[in-house]
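stuck on this:

***
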Amino acid sequence: MALAKRIIPCLDVKNGQTVKGTNFVNLRQAGDPVALGKAYSEQGADELVYLDITASHEGRKTFTEMVQRVAAEISIPFTVGGGINEMADVERLLNAGADKVSINSAAIRNPQLINDITKHFGSQVCVVAIDAKKTEKGWICFLNGGRIPTAWNLFDWAKEACERGAGEILFTSMDHDGVKNGYANEALSRLSDELSIPIIASGGAGKREHFRDAFTIGKSDAALAASVFHFEEIAIPELKLWLKAEGINVRI
């Protein structure tokens, strides 16, 4: 029996509040991250992802305190990311109660960090997040919340991360982020075919069909979404029942 497909709300946290943008800009408030996470957990979300999008030194303190509050309130696994640059950051967040950490820019700058995390804490703890955009040179990876292009091609970098021990790849298509036209299923499908680890689809959820397509056409193991959940456009219990009716194996 194949593993159940996971539905993962993502909460971008800025100064202790949940925010959501489009194509990585124009942020608007979406509520208290702990209360939202608790509500999603009760509605049947499989996991949660919290991203500290302003991980300056001051933000880190606020964020670590929030992680402790989340751990105290929520029973499902949750991943935290944003501003994780070294092992001390990983340790601090796992000690605060996170189940997994997500690394993005730091992994590209220092790929050895993937090896170090998996060696010390196990590969299940290490999620490598990749922000990529389709250009005339193919899918290119970006750093710093999508601001700086790199020399890495999405598929090459994902393969490298996998070989270094990453437990999962969280792939966000920057062109699809917040636009609600569906996920980048072609790229997702290729990642799923080429890698032996789970792929989490991110960027583009607008309606129920998009989740189904991410699982069927995109072959992804999990689908992450933000605004459709935060602004109550899609309710998780109904989404899961609908997916089940569509023949997708989800936990109800």
The first helix runs from residue 33 to 43. The domain at 6-245 is CATH 3.20.20.70 (TIM Barrel). The mean pLDDT is 92. DSSP finds ten helices and twelve strands in the chain.
